[in-house]
Amino acid sequence: GKETIELKLVPANGVKALKVELEERTGVPVERMKLMSKSKGLWKGVLKDDFDMTSIDASKLKLPLQMLLMGSATKLVAPKTKTVFIEDLPPEEVAKHAPEPAGLVNLGNTCYLNSVVQCMRSIPQLRSGLRAYVPPPRSANSLAAGTASSSPLLLSSLRDLFESLDRTTNAVPPSNFVMATKIAFPQFAQTGPRGQPMQQDAEEFYSNLLTVAGGEMRGNCLTAGLTGGQSAASAPTPEELDGAENLADALFGMKMEETLTCDEFSS
Question: What is the pTM of this model?
Answer without folding.
Answer: 0.61
